Amino acid sequence: MARTNQLKSTEPKESAEQLVEIILTDAIEAAAMPFGPWRALNPNLLVPMVIRGRSGYEYRVTRVGVDAMHRLTDQEWRARDAVRQTIARSEFDKISFQAMGDAILDRRTHIPDDAVDQSAEATEDFFKSMTADYRRKLEDYVDAVRRTTDRHIQCNLFHADQNVPSFKVGPVEFLPRAGWLKRYIRSDAALEHVRSVQDGRTTYEELRTHALAAGSDQDLRTAWQVLSSLNGFGWVATVRMEGHELAQSHHKASILVGLAIDAIGLRFQVEDARRFTKAGRQHLFSEERLATSTDGKFLAGWSVQMPGLGSAPGALAAKMAAERAFLDAAGKVLQAYAVGRQTGRAPHLVERWANALYWVGEARREASDFMAVVNYGCAADGLSGAGGEATNMMRFAEAALNPKGKPIPAGSLSIAGAVNRVYREGRNKLAHGETVGLLEDHAEIRSIGDSLLTNLLDVVTVELAAVIDDPSSKILVVREDHAYRAFEAKLKARA
Q1: What are phi and psi of 219, to 5 degrees?
Q2: Neighbours of 83 (CB within 10 A)
């Protein structure tokens, strides 16, 4: 198919219409090739180079068409903030190819009645119309894969004898296992199957055998699926994900749940906080070990740390009740983060808070002092908006932790000194290779980093939540550097 009116080549990158032209031209040329030579061009014979629409039609292309299709997909992906937040990139790639496949199928509708032959010259309007078809179908397919689900992430928080009731941290609700089963299993028969295993009246293996047998009923299969997913976890975190493709909804829900757990962990000592775990972090409390001696003998071992926290019966229920104000504040910030991330970015200070909380959580779980110190340093930089300047971090930390500039007792580490140890002597020298790190003992700096960052997050979380609650505040809508100056002033103004 020849082209009469070439699009301007002065554009910094190919336009969508130009890419559509390349794709269609390559598809027409590939269709004219004998099957054998075309097949030989495929780098992977199990993944043929075709563009297949949802209609079922598929069109052969060569590497030229595939590469152009990927460039077009990338352009469309970057142009859609809301799509990037709600659909996994791999799923978007798939539906982009499908949309193009259907747009190629419908191409004849844009050819004038007096030029229905494929060899007719194509005008610029033809490719604009075909591109519009592609985009329209792409939007339809995007809408089709997005749905609202309640995502359930298994976790271990508190031992059952603590009688900690269900609670929320922003958009995340935490329920003890028994409460979650009662709320979300709607079939009495399926719930009874689950309870029969938990009460010891039948074994999990027996339930599995019956559930997978030919002709088994839905209640048996539901009970087996639930028990398989819950495994040994005693709590379930639930977060509603509205308008997300399924893979992306799980990914984002897992991150939100992790942030909520890390916020809870801020109210506990680091060793206790490490015992809070969710699905995907089981390695933190159970490990199988295998070795052989020089004479060939196998040496097997294991370590296990009981997940979740225990104490005197009921003690942690009182602890969680006492921490309600902080968890409500953390929940407000986490909710603002989740809402902002529905269509793009959250407000700048909220984004930085979420990233810093994640880094601190990773630092507290990290086996290596080396990586923990680097994470604490990154958290200090990100939370303070310092841009890598230690003096800016020191000023922010002073505003948060010593707003009235009270003298530091003799022999105590100053706030500026703590920032210097964690960022300059810790993060910078380790990250740049000036200090050996991976197998070295950096426990002292790690301890300073944990104290510095947990105290900073304690203060910043509450004050940031107050900003979110204040309809007259402009801190979250002004430019970031101005926002930090205003936020520091707010921190210093505390009584």
Answers
A1: -65, -40
A2: 20
Dihedral sign for Cα atoms in the order 83, 87, 90, 94: negative
354 or 287: which leads in pLDDT: 354
Residue of 178, 207, 212, 179 lying closest to 193 (CA atoms)? 207
3-state secondary structure of 82: helix
Count of beta carbons in the 10 Å neighbourhood of residue 294: 5
**CA pair distance 175, 195, nearest whole angstrom:** 17
Mean pLDDT value across residues 207-234: 88
At 62, list the tokens. Answer: 């060569």
Tell the residue number behind the tokens 């509708």, with chain if given. Answer: 109
Q: Which of 386, 460, 368 is nearest to 424 (CA)?
A: 386
Confidence of residue 328 (pLDDT cuts 50, 70, 90): very high
CA distance 340 to 316: 33
DSSP reduced 3-state for 236:
strand
Tell me the β-bridge partners of 309. 158
Which distant-in-sequence residues (6+ apart) come within 8 Å of 455 by Cβ?
Answer: 400, 401
What pLDDT score does 5 carry?
44
| Torsion 354-356-362-364 (CA) sign | negative
Pairwise CA distance, residues 9 & 302, whole Å: 65
CA dihedral 455, 460, 462, 463 (to 10 degrees): 140
pLDDT at 330: 97
Q: What is the Cα Rg of the chain in Å?
A: 29
Give yes or no for a contact between 276 and 155, defined as CB atoms under 8 angstroms apart. Answer: yes
- pLDDT of 332 over the 50 cut: yes
pTM of the model: 0.78
Q: What pairs with residue 303 in β-bridges?
A: 287
CA-based end-to-end distance of the chain: 75
Q: How far is CA 274 from CA 265, 404, 446, in A?
A: 8, 33, 15
Using an 8 Å Cβ cutoff, are 347 and 336 in contact?
yes
What does the chain come to in residues? 495
- What percentage of the chain reaches a pLDDT higher than 70? 89
Q: How many CB atoms lie within 10 A of CB 141?
A: 20
Contact 391, 365 (CB under 8 A): no
What type of residue is 78? R
Q: How far apart are CA 339 and CA 441, in angstroms?
A: 41
Strand partners, 52: 58
